[in-house]
Amino acid sequence: MDERVNPIRLTDNKTGEVYELDFNREALYVMDRDEFKIDEVTDYPTTMIPKLFYYSFRKNHRKMTKAQTDKILTDVLHGLTPKMLERLLVLYHQAATANNIQDDEDLEKNSAVTVEM
């Protein structure tokens, strides 16, 4: 796997509150449970970008409500830049593939299992 991509850090300059946006396995479970489909982000951006933004708070700010993240997205950020959206998508995919996809070299080093294909 490539190097880990850093999470997005948002600092609300009015309140001093710092938010770290990232995904982990638990966040992805919640997304799956809610039937969130990452492929629909570009198909339905008005609906899906705010949901993706909300889910990105799950790892480090679990008590944040959708209403709170919507307020940050609309009133503080005034929307996401293409770079921010791209980073959220990369962070999502990074979490989705962590411990699920590894390169062949790492698998060969794993002495607990032998894989033949």
Structure description:
The protein is mostly helical and 117 residues long. It is 49% helix and 7% strand. The chain has six helices and two strands, in the order ββαααααα. It has helices at residues 25-33, 40-43, 45-55, 66-76, 82-97, 104-109, and strands at residues 8-11, 18-21. It has a two-stranded antiparallel ribbon with strand order 1-2. Strand 1 (8-11) and strand 2 form a beta hairpin. Helix 3 (45-55) packs across helix 4 (66-76). It is elongated, with a radius of gyration of 17 Å.
Secondary-structure map:
Blueprint: E1 8-11, E2 18-21, H1 25-33, H2 40-43, H3 45-55, H4 66-76, H5 82-97, H6 104-109
Antiparallel strand pairs: 1-2
Features:
117 residues; 2 strands; 6 helices; single chain; two-stranded antiparallel sheet; mainly alpha
Summarize the structure.
With 117 residues, the protein is mostly helical.
Helix and strand run: EEHHHHHH
| Number of helical segments with 4 or more residues | 6
Uncertain segments are none
First-residue to last-residue Cα separation: 21 Å
Percentage of residues in strands? 5-15%
Cα-based radius of gyration, to the nearest Å: 17 Å
Helix percent reads: 40-55%
